[in-house]
Design brief:
Elements (H helix, E strand, L loop, with lengths): L9 E8 L3 H16 L9 H19 L5 E9 L2 E8 L18 H11 L3 E6 L6 E8 L1
Antiparallel strand pairs: 1-2, 2-3, 3-5, 4-5
Helix pairs in contact: 1-2, 2-3
Length: 141
């Protein structure tokens, strides 16, 4: 998929505490953002997007909460694509292909596999100071 999130005109940002309720809040906000962007909740990419979002937020809560008390979810939409990123301030930068952290059966491996099956992309972008990262998912609509 060649559409980059930076080129998408619509933006929405959600900041949530790194606690269990963040998953529900992020899912509900994702649904609202999709509807606001004109994407029906019955679109075939919606349920996988919600599952991917839930897994990424769960990972941030589970693995980054100590060094990142807040999680930021950024949404972008435009030109037949929907993108979202889950950002935390934990320094670990996961590899999204072939790394031990993405072994079959792991949540991150499922995220990457589902994203690719939908024709999308998954990218890790490190913070400029190297002390955090955002995992960006871009899906065609």
């Amino acid at each position: 998929m060649s559409v980059r999130a930076e080129a998408m005109p619509y933006r929405h940002v959600l900041d949530v505490p790194a606690m269990g309720s963040a998953v529900r809040i992020a899912r509900e906000t994702t649904e609202l953002v999709l509807v606001e962007c004109g994407v029906g909740l019955r679109h075939p990419s919606v349920d996988p997007a919600l599952l991917i979002m839930s897994e990424l937020v769960t990972n941030a809560v589970r693995h980054a909460a100590v060094s990142s008390p807040m999680i930021t979810v950024t949404y972008a939409h435009g030109a037949g694509a929907f993108a979202f990123a889950v950002h935390d301030r934990h320094p670990y930068q996961p590899a999204l292909s072939g790394a031990p952290g993405t072994a079959p059966g792991s949540g991150l491996a499922m995220v990457v596999e589902m994203t690719r099956e939908l024709g999308g992309t998954a990218v890790v972008r490190a913070d400029a100071d190297g002390r955090g990262k955002a995992i960006w998912i871009t899906l065609p609509l």
